[in-house]
Amino acid sequence: MELEGTVVAAGCTEMIGRSRIMALSERERHELSMLEEQLKSEDPRLSRALSTGKARDPATAPFAFLMALGAIVLIAGVAASSVILSLAGIFLAAAGITWRISRWVKEHYETYGEERRH
């Protein structure tokens, strides 16, 4: 029988809800700290996202807006049998995709570009 919030094995394992939490040894804490420092130095952007809990990329909002607007305009163009309106919707969606790909290439180059030069 598992009891919530009780220490199961003198300082080693604790039940919280249905999860079992184990205390880390000093060596394990040190290794975890070293991994954290390595992550901070190798990928500071990912480290910031993980520490703040904001893993969502802010560059996604304009992309999503252009895609949604493009879809709405395209549907309105098809419903109104307007070629110009339909083409405008396709153009907006294509602009959103192009913008997002260019941002990804820029971010990818900033992150990994220096490694390839040396």
Number of domains: 2
State the helix count. Answer: 4
Widest sheet, order of strands: 1-2-3
Task: Tell me the span between the first and last alpha carbons.
Answer: 59 Å
How are the SSEs ordered, and which strands pair?
Elements: E1 7-9, E2 13-16, E3 19-22, H1 26-42, H2 44-52, H3 60-79, H4 83-117
Antiparallel strand pairs: 1-2, 2-3
Give your account of this protein's structure.
The chain is mainly alpha-helical and 118 residues long. The chain has helices spanning 26-42, 44-52, 60-79, 83-117; strands at 7-9, 13-16, 19-22. It has a three-stranded antiparallel sheet, with no helix packed on it. α1 packs across α2 (44-52) and α3 packs antiparallel against α4. The radius of gyration is 25 Å and the shape is elongated. The model is unreliable at 1-10 (pLDDT under 50).
